[in-house]
Specification:
single chain; mainly alpha; 2 domains; 14 helices; 50% helix; ARM-type_fold; ARM-like; PBS_lyase_HEAT; oxidoreductase activity
């Protein structure tokens, strides 16, 4: 696996990070190893839209100007403002803007970036809004809401997070499992063993990854079954094989939610939920 600090030859869009996969670095034997159900759209985003996650143009601007941007007719300005507001100090006017304007936006990216910023700001109002966002029609917004709840207070919101294990989208189920693993550790054994049978390769991959932190003969047996199952994509098999070699206690102590090396070492910032949009 490449050192994340040296992974400079990948996509320039910060929403596209294959390094966030536990199986990153495994070589695919062919197209049959690629799960085609992942949410990827080709050719829809303009170069300017891809720059919406760059909040540098708003550095140094007042919060009021960012709130104005959240009301703009310009989609890129709204997306950028939603993200930039997460860099502010929590205040009622900012929470009002993100909740009443950002989360009500017709654009799913604006809603996703708004709930992401609420996760950065934290607090009771942000948490309550993120819980409400778990019913958003867009799965990537729901997935981001789980990341926000995990940051704000995963223990307080454990019931809402657990309910998302039954969501119909793989990214939501995966993020719920990651958050609950951080909260409950070995108590997640049965959930993760069940997720190794999930319809989604992505969920099975992460379940195998998280099982590295759970001791037990039944866990090792299941991981060996996955590692030796030729019907599984190679990325899932290789993840299971690596998990067998992990020390469960050390894995749990070191696990913070993903491969955070690409985020400057800050465990509160990960790109686990970024939807590819070329």
């Amino acid at each position: 696996m490449r050192d994340p600090d040296e992974a400079t030859d990948g996509p320039t869009d910060p929403r596209v990070h294959p390094e966030e996969s536990p199986g990153f670095g495994a070589e695919s034997e062919g197209l049959e190893d690629i799960e085609v159900s992942r949410d990827i759209t080709i050719g829809e985003a303009t170069p300017r839209e891809l720059q919406a996650t760059d909040i540098a143009p708003l550095v140094g601007t007042e919060a009021a100007e960012k709130i104005t941007g959240l009301r703009s007719d310009d989609l890129v300005k709204r997306r950028r403002a939603a993200l930039a507001l997460g860099e502010e100090t929590r205040a009622e006017t900012i929470l009002d803007a993100l909740i009443e304007i950002g989360l009500a936006d017709e654009d799913s990216d604006v809603r996703q970036f708004s709930v992401e910023s609420l996760g950065e700001l934290g607090g009771e109002r942000a948490g309550d809004a993120a819980v409400e966002t778990l019913s958003d029609p867009n799965p990537w917004v729901r997935s981001e809401a789980l990341i926000a709840l995990d940051k704000i207070d995963r223990q307080q919101h454990a019931t809402a997070i657990e309910a998302s294990l039954a969501d119909d989208h793989h990214a939501v189920r995966r993020n719920a499992a990651v958050s609950l693993f951080k909260l409950r550790g070995t108590e997640m054994k049965e959930v993760l063993l069940d997720q190794t049978h999930d319809d989604s390769e992505r969920v099975r991959e992460w379940a195998a990854h998280l099982l590295a932190g759970i001791p037990g003969d039944d866990v090792e047996t299941r991981l060996r079954e996955i590692a030796n199952d030729d019907s599984e994509p190679k990325v899932v098999r290789s993840t299971a094989a690596r998990s067998i070699e992990e020390d469960p206690g050390a894995f749990r102590r070191q696990f913070t939610g993903g491969t955070e090396g690409a985020t400057g070492g800050d465990p509160t910032k990960n790109r686990l939920n970024k939807k590819p949009d070329f």
